[in-house]
From TrEMBL:
<dbReference type="GO" id="GO:0006099">
    <property type="term" value="P:tricarboxylic acid cycle"/>
</dbReference>
<comment type="pathway">
    <text>Carbohydrate metabolism; tricarboxylic acid cycle.</text>
</comment>
<keyword id="KW-0808">Transferase</keyword>
<dbReference type="GO" id="GO:0005975">
    <property type="term" value="P:carbohydrate metabolic process"/>
</dbReference>
<protein>
    <recommendedName>
        <fullName>citrate synthase (unknown stereospecificity)</fullName>
        <ecNumber>2.3.3.16</ecNumber>
    </recommendedName>
</protein>
<comment type="similarity">
    <text>Belongs to the citrate synthase family.</text>
</comment>
<dbReference type="Pfam" id="PF00285">
    <property type="entry name" value="Citrate_synt"/>
</dbReference>
<dbReference type="InterPro" id="IPR019810">
    <property type="entry name" value="Citrate_synthase_AS"/>
</dbReference>
<dbReference type="GO" id="GO:0036440">
    <property type="term" value="F:citrate synthase activity"/>
</dbReference>
<dbReference type="InterPro" id="IPR016142">
    <property type="entry name" value="Citrate_synth-like_lrg_a-sub"/>
</dbReference>
<dbReference type="InterPro" id="IPR016143">
    <property type="entry name" value="Citrate_synth-like_sm_a-sub"/>
</dbReference>
<dbReference type="InterPro" id="IPR036969">
    <property type="entry name" value="Citrate_synthase_sf"/>
</dbReference>
<dbReference type="InterPro" id="IPR002020">
    <property type="entry name" value="Citrate_synthase"/>
</dbReference>
Length: 425
């Protein structure tokens, strides 16, 4: 196990002490009040979760342990995992040590591939990812130690071990799913000389003569790493983990939520939308044509994928990072040019409609166009990339939850009858 464990073991007592002190002094203070509207409305705005790894500021976007995401775009994903978990970026030696740990695992056993290959061809790659992770659950050290009578203060340790094991295997698992799902040929074994993101790109097996696709993958993995803890996948992972289900069960559960069209699947929908525009106009339409297309989309009752957000109220900096990458490397690509023009047109359209609280692009508005450009054209696979990246946040949140002794999740529910009686309706 890498030096991460040693470092975390020094930080945990301090964190626990801090929480106990805060609970002692302020345990009865009110954090948030909940209206019936909020209860019905997906708990929007109700402050009711603790999250150490990141915060989402409505105007500034994702901030990982104090670092705005836009300042992390040149970092490796494994550096970002280190940051999420420990609250500091690794030095050179620390990064090398962690990378060495990630590379120390044997390739996945054949039974995993047999399970995945036995699934019918129309199985969605996200279902394959979730099943693949569950197929690895037998590796859980947390479950084994729990069965042996592990004590609560020690929970974080095997949770960390499981998290790093799962993280180490995810690129191989996810790349294998791509190869099986697309029928592109044999599985590609991991190359121990490559970094975590570079290895994932390599195992997908797409031509990448200049290494730009690998750069895009690293960027993609950094940008999707975490989004505090109230989003569907993070909260689901937390809830499942709070029952002391291990990291495999918890992350698989969270990723099932990421597979929904209003969450992670939006990047698949977003590219389908771009392709539809490209096909209809046989290229890049004028801004006026785009505006009309968007108005027609809204009129038909559909949302404009890649726009709007539950928390953000400005252009998502993760969109900005992808947009910058596209302007630099794919400015001539017609699909990317449609992304660029939509950015100019959609906010005005959504403001005109007057419904969306944020008319600006989110992370899903541009990423698909870049993947398409580099030959990753199977857009039903895109959420898997998102899932591999988001696993970094889900896993670091799980480790921290076990470290601070977070209890089983159990809010109180009420019936409509209770609502009527209580409000005298
Ligand atoms: N196009 C059309 N209408 C939109 C819209 C969009 N892009 N975004 C919001 N609206 C509408 C909502 O559908 C809602 O309409 P109703 O009142 O008729 O139900 C109204 O505006 C208010 O919604 P909101 O409060 O602004 O947004 P929510 O917090 O309810 O939902 C969503 C946030 C991201 C789900 C929403 O903006 C949406 O559906 N966007 C398109 C899908 C998308 O891009 N999803 C990816 C989000 C990023 C993410 O989590 N990735 O994992």
């Amino acid at each position: 196990m890498s030096k991460i464990k040693e470092k975390l073991s020094h930080k945990i007592p301090q964190l626990r002490e801090e929480i106990q002190e805060l609970l002692k002094n302020y345990g009865d203070k009110v954090v948030s009040e909940v209206t019936f509207q909020q209860m019905f409305g997906g708990m929007r705005g109700v402050k009711s979760l603790l999250c150490e790894t990141s915060i989402v500021d409505p105007d500034k976007g994702l901030i990982v342990r104090g670092h705005p995401i836009i300042e992390l775009v040149d970092r490796l994903p494994e550096e970002v995992f280190y940051l999420l978990l420990l609250g500091e970026l690794p030095g050179k030696a620390e990064l090398e040590d962690f990378q060495k740990t990630l590379k120390s695992y044997d390739p996945l056993e054949d039974y995993v591939w047999k399970v995945l290959k036995a699934l019918p061809k129309d199985t969605h790659p996200m279902a394959m990812l979730s099943i693949g992770i569950l197929a690895l659950e037998r590796k859980s050290i947390f479950r084994k130690k729990y069965d042996e009578g592990m004590h609560k203060p020690d929970y974080w340790d095997p949770m960390l071990e499981d998290s790093i094991t799962l993280l180490a295997h995810l690129p191989e698992l996810a790349a294998g799913i791509y190869r099986i799902h697309t029928g592109k040929g044999d599985l590609i074994k991991p190359d121990k000389n490559l970094d975590w993101g570079g290895n994932y790109a390599y195992m997908l097996g797409l031509p990448d003569p200049k290494g730009r696709f690998a750069d895009l993958m690293r960027l993609y993995l950094v940008l999707h790493c975490d989004h505090e803890s109230g989003n569907v996948s993070a909260m689901t992972t937390h809830v499942v983990g709070s029952a002391l289900s291990d990291a495999y069960y918890s992350v698989s559960g969270g990723l099932n939520g990421l597979a929904g069209p209003l969450h992670g699947l939006a990047n698949q929908e977003s590219l389908a939308f771009l392709r539809e525009i490209h096909d209809k106009f046989k290229g890049v339409p004028s801004d006026e044509q785009l505006k009309q297309f968007c108005l027609d989309t809204l009129k038909s009752g559909k949302v404009i994928p890649g726009y709007g957000h539950a928390v953000l109220r400005q252009t998502d900096p993760r969109f900005t990072a992808f947009h910058n990458f596209g302007l630099k490397h794919c400015g001539h690509d017609e699909i990317f040019r449609i992304v660029d023009r939509l950015f100019a047109v959609v906010p005005g359209v959504l403001i005109g409609q007057g419904k969306a609280k944020s008319p600006y692009p989110n992370v899903d508005a541009g990423s698909g166009a870049l993947l398409w450009h580099y030959g990753l054209k199977e857009f039903d696979y895109y959420t898997v990339l998102f899932g591999v990246s988001r696993a970094m946040g889900l896993l670091s949140q799980l480790v921290i939850s076990r470290a601070i002794g977070a209890p089983i999740f159990r809010p109180k529910s009420v019936s409509l009858d209770w609502v009527k009686k209580t409000f005298g309706a």
